[in-house]
Amino acid sequence: MKSIFKTLLLALWTLCPIVGAEAKIKVHTIGDSTMATYDENSTDKRGWCQMLQQFFNADEVTINNRGKSGASSKSFYRESAYWKTVIAGVNEGDYVLIQFAHNDEKNGGLDGDSVIAYTKEQGSSTDGIDYRGTTANGTFKKYIRAYIDETKAKGGKPVIVTPICRKYFSGNTIRRNGMHDLGDSFSIMGSTSKGSVPESDNTYDYAQALRDVAAEYEDVPVIDLTLMTRNLYLSYGESYCTQNLFCDGDNTHPAKMGATLIARLAAQEMKAQGILAEQIIVGTDITFSPTTGDFGKAYAGQTLTKEFNVSAFGLANQTGTFTFTVSEGFEVSSDKTNFDREVKVSYTGGNLITTVYVRTTLSSAGIAIGKLTATDGTVNRELDLTAECVDLSGGEEVTVLYPLTSDANAIVTGPCMALDETWSGMELQKYSAINSKAVWPEWTGRDASYKTQRNVIEGSNWPAGEIDEVSTRYIQFGMKAPDKTRIDIDKISLFVAGAGGSGMRCKIYYATDNAFQDATLIQEFTSMAGNTVYAVENTPVVSISDGESLYLRIYPWYSSAASGKTICFSDVYIHGVASDATSSIKVTTFPPVLAEEGMYDLMGRFVKHPTKGNIYLQKGKKVIVK
Known about the structure:
The chain is of the alpha+beta class. The protein folds into 3 domains: 22-279, SGNH hydrolase (Rossmann fold, 3-Layer(aba) Sandwich); 287-390, Immunoglobulins (Immunoglobulin-like, Sandwich); 396-580, Jelly Rolls (Sandwich). Helix content is 15%, strand content 34%. It is built from 9 helices and 37 strands. The strands form 9 sheets. Strands 19, 20, 23, 24, 27, 30, 31 and 34 form an 8-stranded antiparallel β-sheet that branches. Strands 21, 22, 26, 28, 29 and 32 form a 6-stranded antiparallel β-sheet that branches. It has a 5-stranded parallel β-sheet with strand order 2-1-3-4-9.
């Protein structure tokens, strides 16, 4: 039996070149927060492009979702972390889906740079003026043309996607501004009065501007999601949309079901127009989003939970029950609370749109594998599950702590360095207690007199109308690894509060590149009770080495126009384990039931080749273990 197993392993080795092979075509999606990818543990938002991969044959098409919260056509083009990095990866035959407008509407239809220039001419402060805004028939079109032209120059195929509607119901229709036409109320330079134009006038219609630009080219198709989502929302009605398609208290950002339905609409329209028609799956098959069951890495003792959005349309039975089962070592739940090896979910109307949660607890170094199976007795689908446990034993503890009670200095332990705290679009106000009404978590033992670092927007005046982060407004902390040192970071924590009102909002990210093009969201606060201190704690599995840094950024905004409101921080903390970066790569032992140590683990990760020695396969890359 053992010799047969080894023969199988060697046979599988010959197939290793195709393990991790990339799909032939990439679909790059650029746009704003309604498209972006979100961490399931940080927010209930889901971008529709986050759900798009499930409707494509993953062996042939890969979705590279680069939607960015807060992005306008201008900011995505001008800020180096975004369009420049996307276009660099566009190859001949790739597609680029272009959807902007939500944040282009900043400044009520005026161009942000023009507003800033005019304000300077008047001798007034430009603090708080948002540069991201564009004019529908001016600078907006300029940037959309630039995306199209530069995509075509690389041999790519641009596709215009008009923005999804906002949930702005007015009786049995969607209001004009919900369709991204500001014609009923737009800003006038130098005036506090608002202007309006007849509905037949498209001067301030961003969706129509996208259609107009596409019409300038003979080969640029339009996916009219503005019209399609309008019809979708109206078909369900305001109450159902509020309860099922959108995030709580949010008229802009879709939740899981809404994002899935919108992604399917986009895929259906692409198929109808002959865009990747043979690679699009919109039949009765069960689809998972994400389309892979890779949980990533975790530390020993850590429990990983992964969310899977599951859909199936046009089922043979109008009503029925799906059964979800998982292999030993994994558990599944439909409510993220009650976990077992099996869970049942009912459906009606011949369609299934649901979410299941799978978790596993990793106890020792190695790779756990299993399967998630979904079936209603007529159709079924399996998804491979994998999770890797990383061993941190033998290293030296390192910490960076910014107490932030009297200054921005950090306390450092172990072989690491603290980055200086920096501000962009924000400034330090003072170190003091939040106020006499401040409430700390009871377990801290702190009272209202405890001092924090208080920070305010430059100029002290928060602008009106912000519903998301501003990419150029943040406060940053971080840790740096010395040369020849590797640091595995396993904890990030801090306290955060809004002082003086309940309108403060923020997002908290970490990244290992200072351009923040691949940042990980660890917390989003869509509401913060005034003067209430919130504890944030995250267990990342990320490493830095040889002078690399981990950057921690907080992006604040305020829910309305306000002056002097501050965001307060205390005890910003980063913890990790340091080891010698020049040491050999550590090979973990896989579960003995699956393979002997040093043998192929059946998932394309680690193999002992008869002539080349130990090979570690990670995302198709081969590394010789010395």
